[in-house]
Amino acid sequence: MSDEIGTRINKYLSEIGFCSRRKADLLIEQERIKVNGIYAVMGQKVTGQEEIRVNNKIIKKLENKKHIYIAFNKPAGIVCTTDTKREKDNIIDYINYPTRIFPIGRLDKPSEGLIFLTNDGDIVNKILRANNQHEKEYVVEVNKPVTKDFIKKMGEGVPVLDKITNKCKIKQTGKKTFKIVLTQGLNRQIRRMCEYFDYRVVFLKRIRIMNINLDIPVGEYRDFTKSELNQINQLVKNSSKTIKE
Question: Is 198 part of the annotated catalytic residue set?
Fold first, then answer.
């Protein structure tokens, strides 16, 4: 097949709702994807007419697939992974949605709160892309009294994972509590920021992502509203892919 024909396999798998591009790349690296009986390689293009297998199971394109976008209030103890075989407390089995979906981003196991799930793999990168500066808001409780100096320094940026975190909005809400708005998604970012100042997070809940607020009980989910979809389309309008109903 000519290199000019078709779609990169990672993009193809995301567009048909099988997985995100990042996950597809990982599956290729692990030699878990075959195209017409041959292991797929990075950057390989497909037309959709090939026999594509993942873990030796044929992947079929779903015609006229309805895109799903849901907001879920994740309980503490649930892991944001699609690996249902290795992680018994995974988010996919917990929700038990009737069709294949996967989380957009992550929320660590001890934390609770808002996370998006979808079957539209191509939107994942658009929402998570760092330069989009999409806001995520959290309520946090730590193990000792919060000081003005702590709030000031947290907002100015903190050394985390060999980089300085972006400046952020932060406001004390109680003796040991505060709200914080991030535009990054570093691994365990808030916990690491607090640990740098010798604080330990004892409770963390995400209450907002972009324009969507947490408004459902723990362990439950709901579809995005039409208005929310429209607003997210505006927020990612500079990306090549936007959400469709």
Answer: no
